[in-house]
Design brief:
The chain is an alpha/beta fold. The chain has one domain: 3-Layer(aba) Sandwich (Rossmann fold), CATH 3.40.50. Helix content is 35%, strand content 17%. Strands 1, 2, 3, 4, 5 and 6 form a six-stranded parallel sheet that branches. The radius of gyration is 16 Å and the shape is globular. The two termini are 23 Å apart. The model has no long low-confidence stretch (mean pLDDT 97). It binds flavin mononucleotide.
């Protein structure tokens, strides 16, 4: 089972990669799980400008990178999207990456890790939940949310020791749910088809 962790910010001094690497390391140690860290910096997709939506074009792209991106997402059986909160929403770079793909997201579960100020990025996650349902995904109930993420790093931008400790149990629950749905949906995808 392949689980892809998507880093939802590409800023130079982003926080995003810290929780992404933290959860990626946990996944890497799990038996039966192949973990992949997907850095959107390595996927410099332009703002969506294909002549047709990936739904209408049935996954045919004019841009080679877009076709490769859809193929990459198609390899996943489950996803963890790691998102900041920007103006009470999620990042534009993440939305753009989501919009480039359609069928490859279908019938797969997704969990969320968020961070930001007092609301810990939860407003961004609530919006993402609506979006992924249109992509026929299964958003997992349990997520991990870090408030005041900027206090979790020192003046050099390094993670403070024990910064993620309080989230260990929540992360465990989230992964348990994600893997449960990943197994069920993988079996279902292999055994049956569903029209979109
Ligand atoms: C354009 C912008 C808007 C932001 N708006 C919010 C916000 O509405 N709520 C919040 O909690 N944090 C907000 N923040 C703070 C970010 O959540 C915080 O800086 C976070 O570390 C950014 O994620 P990143 O470092 O991975 O890019 C905002 C940051 C930026 C750059």
């Amino acid at each position: 089972m392949k689980i892809q962790v998507i880093i939802g910010s590409t800023r130079p001094n982003r926080f995003s990669e810290k929780p992404a690497k933290w959860i990626f390391e946990k996944l890497s140690k799990m038996e039966g799980v192949e973990a992949e860290l997907i850095d959107l910096r390595n996927w410099p997709l332009p703002f969506f400008n294909e002549p047709m939506s990936p739904n209408a074009s049935k996954g045919k792209y004019t841009l080679d990178l877009a076709a490769k991106w859809a193929e990459k997402i198609g390899e996943g059986d489950a996803y963890i999207m790691v998102t900041p909160e920007y103006n009470h929403g999620y990042s534009a770079v993440l939305k753009n990456a989501i919009d480039y793909v359609f069928a490859q997201w279908h019938n797969k579960p997704v969990a969320f890790i968020s961070y930001g100020g007092i609301a810990a990025g939860t407003r961004a996650v609530q919006q993402l939940r609506q979006v992924v349902i249109e992509l026929q995904m299964v958003p997992i109930r349990n997520g991990v949310h870090f408030p005041f993420s900027w206090t979790m790093v020192d003046e050099n931008g390094n993670l403070k020791p024990g910064a993620f400790e309080s989230a260990e149990d929540t992360a465990k629950n989230m992964l348990e749910q994600l893997i449960w749905f990943a197994k069920m949906l993988k079996t279902a995808r292999e055994e049956t088809t569903m029209s979109s």
